[in-house]
Amino acid sequence: MRRWNGWGDTSTTKEVSAHGGALIRSIIGQPKALEDASLESVMATVPASRLPAHALIDTDVEQRVRHARGQSFADWLAMRSGDFGVFPDGVSYPETSAQVRQILDLAVAHDFIVIPYGGGTSVAGHITPQANAKPILTVDMGRMNHLMELNEESQIATFGAGTPGPQVEAQLQARGYTLGHYPQSWELSTIGGWVATRSSGQQSLRYGRIEQMFAGGKLETLQGTMDIPTIPASSAGPDMREVTMGMEGRMGIYTEVKVRVVRVAQEEKFMVCFMPNWAAGKAVAREVAQQKIPMSMMRVSNAAETRAHANLGTSLKQFKLLDGYLRLRGLDDNRCMLTFGVTGSKLQNKASMRQVKKILKQHKGVGGPLANIMGSIWAHGRFKFPYLRETTWAQGIAVDTLETSTDWDNVDPLMNAMEASLRTALQDEGEEVMVFTHLSHVYGQGSSIYTTYFFRCAETYPATLARWQKLKGKTSKVIAQGRATISHQHGVGRDHAPYMPAEKGELGMRVIETLVNDFDPDRRLNPGVLLEDNQ
């Protein structure tokens, strides 16, 4: 069953080993847990709905609670404390594009706000309702979850926009195809949400980001229906796919998504090796990307993350064996973990591995018998990291992430500045922060930077929120001023909207505002997301 106040399914957990927990506490100090609110107590605070009675509108109190927040840290604190602030006035579950069209017409006729909801996995405040004089309707796309058509000649698949990752792959692989889009939120997030937020999957080196997969579809807007054709390429002015992607519900709601699919690969392998230091690991990833070696993924963890994962993901005996083996091979505490994958035909994978092993040898990488075993362990638990927040929260430990991307020449300066900002953000309170980073998506030009940080909960929920705001705000400014994007894969939402102008510039922001104003002059569609225009 889906958690009402946390991530994912109640049957899934990610345990923290005793020595892993000891490592965290050795840095941040002894934590103290905050008390969680109950679902019943939260339901008692939900006000009466302001929406009109209609067959497409459900005003059930529990459903309004379950659709009131996403998964940003601010959302997490609201759910755990029970202090939601604002609830949607109702939830709609459309099953067709025509019903979405009807909902938008109702919004105009009855003057209410519409918030699109996919898998509820937003970590940037995309789906959080804000105080508004108008009623608020959340539109849950979860019933539009089927493969509608598969054109095998053109390899174009059409899905209902509410189809979550597992159903995308199950329905495609039953026909011998795959999309290959695996964000960490894959279990819950939806194909429409991927397009609306410009998502990136873990195996983007092979399959590309969602913008390489998105072939066309249907967008229901307040001005009418926009059908985006599946033309392979066009020089006829701006591409409507690019214009509508990443608009986060501000122009309309995707109801059908057409994507470019490929046949399921003959073979797929994931491996883990260890590099003597960060410079060596980064060099391997950069060379692989710039030489365009056919890999499916390449991830480099810095020394701090390598140490953390080795502690958090092993038993004490396993950790000691691993540590001892690597030290015998000459790798000290500066070692960095390199996780990579090959996906394709056996012949192609063999050639790719031959090229990669040559680069690894040049930079003194250590793999051996560990490589395949640890690669399999990574693949088995690849979607479980978000569950760590649940485990650490019960101990009074807060965890969150920040991510960006920049050119190769700026990766080290920016990563170091981000980590330094996080480590020092709570010094005025005498609090230490545990910080580590990896590069998860590499390009010829540059790389993403994904930083995780742990800190102690304060004595109260408001004080804990204030701590997070210091960490998030200070480091977001570092990113915005650091020749980088405010988000490589999480999107903008509300949390990142203040930092958009640094990337887009005055004229770029004018373009976005013009689109929003033209498609939604009365600010009915997800106001406050992407742009700071909640009122």
TrEMBL record:
Belongs to the FAD-binding oxidoreductase/transferase type 4 family. SUPFAM superfamilies: FAD-binding/transporter-associated domain-like (SSF56176), FAD-linked oxidases, C-terminal domain (SSF55103). It comes from the Bacteria. PROSITE patterns: FAD_PCMH (PS51387). Keywords: FAD, Flavoprotein. Residues 84-264 form the FAD-binding PCMH-type domain. The keyword Membrane does not apply. It comes from Sinobacterium norvegicum. This is FAD-binding PCMH-type domain-containing protein. InterPro entries: Alkyl-DHAP_Synthase, FAD-bd_oxidored_4_C, FAD-bd_PCMH, FAD-bd_PCMH-like_sf, FAD-bd_PCMH_sub1, FAD-bd_PCMH_sub2, FAD-linked_Oxase-like_C, Oxid_FAD_bind_N.
